[in-house]
Structure formats: C-alpha cells, structure tokens
Amino acid sequence: MRFQPLIRRISVVPALAAGLGVLLVGCGSSSPSTAKSPSSPSTSAAATTGATAAESAIKANWVAFFASSTPVSKRVGLLQDGQQFQALISAQAKSPLASSASAKVTKVSGVTSSQAAVTYSILLAGATALSKQSGVAVYQDGTWKVGDKSFCALLVLENGKKSGLPPACSSAG
C-alpha cells in the first residue's frame, strides 16, 4: 500500500505541471544576439554571449510560466501561440494543485535563432514529480516561450490520453 501515495503523487504532478504552465507569468526576456560566423575571436565571443543570454531568458521564462505567482495573462504570453490556450490556462490557474507546482530547468541546449531544447523537472510542493522532461522553447514575437508542443505533451500526461486535448494541440509544432 506504500505505492498508492506515490501513484497519487505521479498522477497529480502532470496536473500541477499543466496548471503551473497556465499560471506562468513572463519574466523579462532578452533577445538573443545575432551570432556571426566565427571568423575572429570577437565574433565567437558575441555568439557565446548571445547563446548565454538566450539560455538565461529561456530558463527564466520557463520557470515563470509554471509559477503559480505568475498572472494568467503573463503565462499566456509565455506560451507559444498562448492565446489559443487562454481558457485552459485560466481554468487550470484555479486548481488547488497548480498553487504548489513549479518547474526547474536543468539544461538548455541547441540554441538557434528560433528554438532550443530544454530539460526540466516539474515540482509539486518542492518535491520532484516529473524529472528530466524534454521540451522545446521557441522564440516568438521577441520572447523565448514554452513551446506549445511541450505544453500539449504535459496535457497528455495529465489526461492519460491524447483525446480530449484542446484543438490547438492538434496543430502544435
């Protein structure tokens, strides 16, 4: 019977993750510097600085998206094509589980001018509920955002199935 609380925790984590995703508020974001061809040490440094700035913005915005303290309007702005998910994000923000969910980004890699790979964990009340999740951040409208494909993947985990997802998930990246 010790497994029952673990099973409850695992099934609650996706719900919280999705709820946090909806509640995320946008932290400041930075535009990545345009990487130039590495023809000289100074251009290589500029490319590295741009990638570092992008990684910092991605981490901050990803965490903000899942933070219960982030207003719904800000969360909508931190999700790729977030307007399509606004009703869902608003509904999830009212969930008691959403208030204890958060995200921790452990790695950002493969940063290009339009997207990056993100490795993250979803936490519930500070305890890891989903670890080492793979996601995608996208650069849209001058802001690094949680990719809709990543958000929809969390919704699948929450629902336990692909059916019943918002129509926006059928066209998600």
Described by strand count, sense and barrel closure, the largest sheet is:
4 strands, antiparallel
**Total helical elements:** 6
Helix-strand topology string: HHHHEEEEHH
Using the alpha-carbon principal axes, give the shape: globular
Fraction of residues in H or I helices: 40-55%
Structural class: alpha+beta
Strand content: 15-25%
Spatial ordering of strands, largest sheet: 1-2-3-4
Mean pLDDT: 77
Total domain modules: 1
Distance between the ends: 40 Å
Radius of gyration: 17 Å
Q: What is the total tally of β strands?
A: 4
Low-confidence stretches: 1-46
Commentary on this structure:
It is a single chain. It is built from 6 helices and 4 strands; from the N terminus they run ααααββββαα. Helix 1 crosses helix 2, helix 1 packs across helix 4 and helix 1 packs antiparallel against helix 5. The relative contact order is 0.19. Helices cover 45% and strands 21% of the residues. It has a 4-stranded antiparallel β-sheet with strand order 1-2-3-4. The N and C termini lie far apart (40 Å). The protein is of the alpha+beta class and 173 residues long. The N terminus is likely disordered. The chain has one domain.
